[in-house]
Every structure is written in C-alpha cells, then in structure tokens.
Amino acid sequence: KNRFPNEPEYIQAVSQVLGTIEDEYNKHPEFEKANIIDRLCIPDRLIEFRVSWVDDKGHVQTNMGYRVQHNNCIGPYKGGLRFHKSVNLSILKFLAFEQTFKNSLTTLPMGGAKGGSDFSPRGKSNAEVMRFCQAFMTELYRHIGPNEDVPAGDIGVGGREVGYMFGQYKKLTHQFVGILTGKGQEFGGSLIRPEATGYGNVYFLQNMLKTRNIDIKGKTVLVSGSGNVAQYTIQKLLELGAKPVTLSDSNGYIYDPDGIDEKKLAYVMELKNIERGRIKEYAEKYGVKYVEGAKPWSEKGDIATPCATQNEINEEAAKILIANGVIAVSEGANMPTVPAAIKQFQDAKILYCPGKASNAGGVAVSGLEMSQNSERLKWTREEVDAKLHAIMDDIHENCVKYGTEPDGYINYVKGANVAGFLKVAKAMLAQGII
Ligand code: NDP
User: Fold this and answer.
1) Full set of structural domains in the chain with CATH
2) Is 316:272 a contact under the CB 8 Å cutoff?
3) What is the number of the ligand 1 atom nearest to the C-alpha of 363?
4) Which residues form a coiled coil (predicted)?
C-alpha cells in the first residue's frame, strides 16, 4: 500500500489474494525466507510508451501504450490487451497479477501479463483502428515473442484488432509465428477461442451447481456486458436450457422477460460485432425495458454472471441479488465484484466463484492455440472443446480441494487463490533468486 498508493485496483486485487492464502503460506517457511510475497507483488517489468497515429481528418493523435510482464516462472508471459479509455497502470497491474494465478490454474505452461492502451475503438473507423493497432505494435513488437510474451484480446480488442496487430508484427519482423492468440481461423487461430471464455464460464457454473445437485436447465440468468464473454456465455446457457434475460453496455441495460433466445442473440452479435451499435437498440427492436446508467442486478434471477468489467457488483447490488433469491454468481469478467459484495455472497453461503477460476477458459484455449501453432496443426472443434471442458473441471476440482471449509461450504476465492499461488511460488523457489 505504501509502494503503490495511487493504484486502488491493484491494491484491491493483491489484498484479496493475500487475505486468502495466509494459512497455506504460513505452512511454508521456505516461502517467507525467499520473500515470495514481495517478489510476487512487484511485476517483473513495466513497459510504458507513446503511441502516435493519424486520424481520418489527418490530425496526429497520441495515446498511452502499456505492457505489464508480471511473472514468467511457469511459462512465457501471457495475457490480453485492453483498449478502453479507462485503461491505466493500476488496472493493468491488477489484471496482470490476477492473470499469473489464473494461468497457473489452467494447468498449462503460461506466465502472467496484461497490456493495452487508453485508446478506445468505439466510434473510430476501421482505417483509424488499423493505424492505431499498427502504431501500437511498432513499439510492442520489441518486447514480445512466441517464447517470451504472447498477448491476446480483452475489452476493445477482438478479432479485428488482433488481425491488424499480427499483420504489423509480421511486417516488422518477417516472422510468421504465434505471437498473438485469438487470431483469425485463416492464419493460425484456434477453433473455439472466441467462444472459450463464455463456454468455460458456463462449464464452471454447471460444476458449482452440481455440488448442490442443481440443474442449470430452466434457470433464469442475469448477464451483464454484451461483448465477447457475454455473447458466448449466453450461447452456452441457451444450449443447456437456461433463460438469460439481461444484457448491458457502458450506457445501461436491457431486461427481456421472455428470454434472449438464439435469434435475439444472433441480432446482438450483429449489432455489437459488426454494426458496433449500443444495447439500447435491442430494447427498441424488441420493445423491452431499457434502463439508462444502471446495471441489471435489481432484476429477479436465479443466477448472476457479470461479464462486462471490474467492480460492477457493489455491496448494495449483492444485497438485492441475495434478497431476490440468487443461488449462484459466476464471474465472466475480471474482478467484477467488490470485496464487500463478495463477503455478502459468502456470508449468505451462495455459490460464488471469482473470475480467475470461472473465466480461465479463454486463456486456456489461448494456450491450446499456442500448442497448435507450435505443432503447425489445427485441432477440431470437438477436440478443443473437450480439452476446454476438462480444464474447467480440473480448475473446479482444485478449488474444492483447497477451498472447502469445515462446514462444507466451498470458498472458491480461497480455493482458486491457494491453488494458483502454490504452483507459482514453488516454481519461483526452484528457479532461485532472479
Ligand atoms: P468486450 O470488449 O467484447 O465487451 C465488453 C463489454 O463490457 C461491452 O459490452 C462493454 O460495453 C462493457 N463494458 C466495458 N467497460 C465497461 C464499463 N466501464 N462499464 C460498463 N460496461 C462496460 O470485452 P470482453 O467480453 O472480452 O471482456 C469482458 C470482461 O471479461 C473483461 O473484464 C475481461 O477482462 C474479461 N475477460 C475476457 C476474456 C476474453 O477471452 N475475451 C478472458 C477472460 C476475462 P461498451 O460496448 O459500452 O464498451
């Protein structure tokens, strides 16, 4: 806290992890001797740079560019790039820190990193987005490599942005290598990667519900966001017979009491991924409720899955969800629930899982994309989906192993943090003081 007083999101994420691993940490005096905690709380490296690009009017614009390389003890740095006006170092440091533990949980050899820019693709033309991506990669390419650091997408960075950045990397280095994941299917992308975070989120949710013999079929689900994670969470929910009823973006949310079915989801995908419109247009098209400037947590649902951004469920929202009878909360987004709200869920013994476990499917399939690129092979949809499912099952098992409390309640936060931490700490110890 003294070192990074102006980084609230980073302090929030670190406090959350340290507060849950203490008992396990104290069983390992060798960790204390090696000062593992301090070494984990300071990222290996921060890269900060200016990005200059030309807009459609011929004006030169500047943005900040960042890459936080947090820890590479179990594999090359790996983590997404976020393009959003809210991006700053505190947010990227929290995301890189979380990524290290999440990647550890996936069972695949990947270290943790995160990066991005305060550039927002919203409202920009394709040509502007391309020029920005090229300018961003013109600096970033020096710091990444297939065995060094492999970025991916995140908020504001989808297939279009990854494609432009991949093209620029190739132009600068003359290398066709798996330098980014989330690539197009034609040039090394893995099948199921676009779906992976949302599908994995629902596989994990199913596992949580199974611990209480609850079937997901017929359950009403509150979803926030309307981007990649929200869309594929809804697709899998529909496949399993659940009924999603909300969606949101940074302006507000829609509530569709009849449920967002396959046809409406196809419209959302077109609206958000191609037309790049606002969720308000859904309400206009289908004549349902739209609430400006609010989040969907006051609606009635059995399950909530926040899939937009950090800190979108506060303590009051948690109390409303509990009062409305929510049975499970599964995070598609990273750190969407504030600590006081997590406490509410846990005190009420509600099934609650942190993003580092429930949304790890995205980076897991990114890891599988790296394997396919190294092999110069492409696996089938079924193969990748089966591996994703198995990884989500493993993560759930680890959470149960390390998070089950004496009264039988599974503290998924503790389980995920302890399991993720132990592997990283042991690898750090084995590799000496570096
Ligand atoms: P997208 O950019 O595809 O979608 C983000 C969605 O969240 C949009 O609907 C966006 O609305 C909304 N949103 C963004 N910022 C805010 C905000 N400040 N307030 C309210 N709504 C906001 O991103 P993803 O779906 O990829 O990512 C969503 C979350 O999932 C993030 O937390 C990300 O870190 C996490 N995640 C993503 C993974 C992936 O594979 N994509 C993997 C693991 C985690 P608008 O259109 O108005 O900006």
Assistant:
1) 43-181 (3.40.50.10860), 194-358 (3.40.50.720)
2) no
3) 42
4) none
